[in-house]
Amino acid sequence: MQPTFNEPDKADDHYWIEHLTFGMRVDVQLLELQKRRYHAELMGLRIGRYIALRFDPQNWPLGEQLTGMAVVCRYLVEDELGEIFAFKAEVLQLMRFPDHLIFLTFPDDVAKRSLRDTARNEVNLPATVTFAGRNYVGQVTDISEGGCRLLLPQVPELQDWDKTEVALAIECTQGPKQALTAHVRNHREGREGVSVGLQFVAPQAWVQNLS
């Protein structure tokens, strides 16, 4: 099974390697275990030899024989358009001391695709979002007609983030408060809270008037 991206979306070696950062989150899909996904973080790599990830033993199937298993890895890079990279590899080895590490074969090919079609403008707009009936206050840090990125200091308690529908109210200095409906496209937890990528249900032309 290859990542389901088209051939024109193939990323050249220098491009995808330059977008790797230590500690970044990597989703690892184990293809022989009902294609389940697990989370890990990038610890290092040796070009042409291996990629090393750190994993949480409480969230990994350590009772399974993983060596030689095929995996698909995906990671998100937030630039102007936002891109997700994916590659297929095999498990080389697991280590449990002095840390929990998994070594993967170095990928032959890496695919990429943009998460949105138009670049977003950097802003700093107060916003309130409603997840499962509960309100959370945060800041919209970038926005386009099709969606935005929302930074929340408090992480919502959600079991399933994917495609969750939310109500969003954005405070605008150049006009009235904007009440929108959006879907969660991605999220990433960090020291400052959680960064949530949202896609609006309908395009928002008023965004063009933001300075």
UniProtKB/TrEMBL annotation:
Residues 116-202 form the PilZ domain. Residues 22-107 form the Type III secretion system flagellar brake protein YcgR PilZN domain. Keywords: Bacterial flagellum, c-di-GMP, Nucleotide-binding. This is PilZ domain-containing protein. It comes from Bowmanella yangjiangensis.
